[in-house]
Amino acid sequence: MEDQINILQEEINQYTVQNEEELETYRMRFISRKSVIGDLLTAIKDVAPEQRKETGIKLNQLKNAAQAKFKELISELENQNNSTKKTDIPDLTLPSIPDELGAIHPLTQVRNRITEIFERIGFQVVDGPEIEDDRHNFTALNFPPNHPAREMQDTFFIEKDSVGNRPDMVLRTHTSSVQIRMMEEGKPPFRAIMPGRVFRNEAISARAHCVFHQVEGLYVDRNVSFADLKQTLLHFAKELFGPKTRIRLRPSYFPFTEPSAELDIWWGNETEADKRITKGTGWLEIGGCGMVDPFVLESCGIDAEEFTGFAFGMGIERIAMIKYQIKDLRLFTENDIRFLKQFSQFN
């Protein structure tokens, strides 16, 4: 056994470690309960009685030496790691890694682009409240008392007074109410767009939502004609969709404009996708427009004999779906990072 003790002592003295795995190997061999030293301590009962005391002293010395070596190895490894950390200090002269920025939401991108186009031709941006009274949302815009849009299937009523002592309060169904407030508070000429969020009591689907965004425009001045409206919308369409874009105006009806028209752009009818999007016509509707009804001007205190104007409105989601070929309206509000990341290239 003395020969084994001497061999183990030499091995302990020469032992070195480079990492924590090697340190653990040392511990298991020399320090743990099932170590080689532990086996020798168990086997001491087999040593001759006259040699047992001397052998036990040597085993205890070996055990203490193994523990002292273990502490020494731990200290050496810590010093080695600290030295490595000091040499791993990054080169401060290298350029920094830029932060990864998120993408601007596609609706915000489209809204900013629309705003930019109209600001270049003299339109200002005007905002208004999302909770409106009946007058600004309906009455001043020439909605008759029995108009379907006043009913619950289209409008979210915040406070409805059946007695008539106070005005009904609703979540605005269009940003046309901002036009009324602007005309009431100022004097012509007016040239402004009103982007904002609107609310309709509709079932949510791939093509409809109860919360969406509109941008409406208003131009009121002397001698404003339908030709001015057409050229303004043509300029807008070419700036947004490309210089070869064509538009058409189809007769329609809106309570607050007369005459009224639907605005279509020529999308094309060459591919199956084109036919599906345009329902085979090649034309795609993006909004409505018309000359401001004289009743609307008069209700805001503007002389309809002296001033005329035009108004237009379009859905921002609708334009974004056309521009980016998005098929499901619900993607705009689900905040799916996989969907939103696609628009970082357009920032």
How would you characterize this protein structure?
The chain has 347 residues and is α+β, with helices and mostly antiparallel strands. It folds into 2 domains: 2-87; 106-346, BirA Bifunctional Protein, domain 2 (2-Layer Sandwich). The chain contains 12 helices and 10 strands. The chain has helices spanning 2-14, 20-31, 36-43, 49-87, 106-119, 134-137, 176-185, 226-241, 272-278, 294-299, 316-324, 337-340, and strands at 124-125, 131-133, 157-159, 169-171, 190-199, 211-221, 247-254, 257-266, 283-292, 308-315. The strands form 2 sheets. Strands 1-5-6-10-9-8-7 form a 7-stranded mixed β-sheet, sandwiched between helices. Strands 2-4-3 form a 3-stranded antiparallel β-sheet. A hairpin with a 2-residue loop joins strand 7 and strand 8. Helix 1 (2-14) packs parallel to helix 4 and helix 5 (106-119) crosses helix 11. The radius of gyration is 40 Å and the shape is rod-shaped. The model has no long low-confidence stretch (mean pLDDT 86).
Q: What do we call the CATH homologous superfamily of the largest domain?
A: Bira Bifunctional Protein, Domain 2
What is the quaternary state of this protein? Answer: single chain
User: Mean pLDDT across all residues, rounded?
Assistant: 86
How many individual helices?
Answer: 12
Instruction: Count the domains.
Output: 2
Shape: rod-shaped
Strand content: 15-25%
Strand order of the largest sheet: 1-5-6-10-9-8-7
Structural class per helix/strand content? alpha+beta
Task: Determine Rg (CA atoms, Å).
Answer: 40 Å
Unreliable sequence segments: none
> What is the total tally of β strands?
10
Query: Describe the biggest sheet?
Result: 7 strands, mixed
Q: What is the CATH class name of the largest domain?
A: Alpha Beta
CATH architecture of the largest domain: 2-Layer Sandwich
Report helical residue fraction.
Answer: 40-55%
Distance between the termini: 79 Å
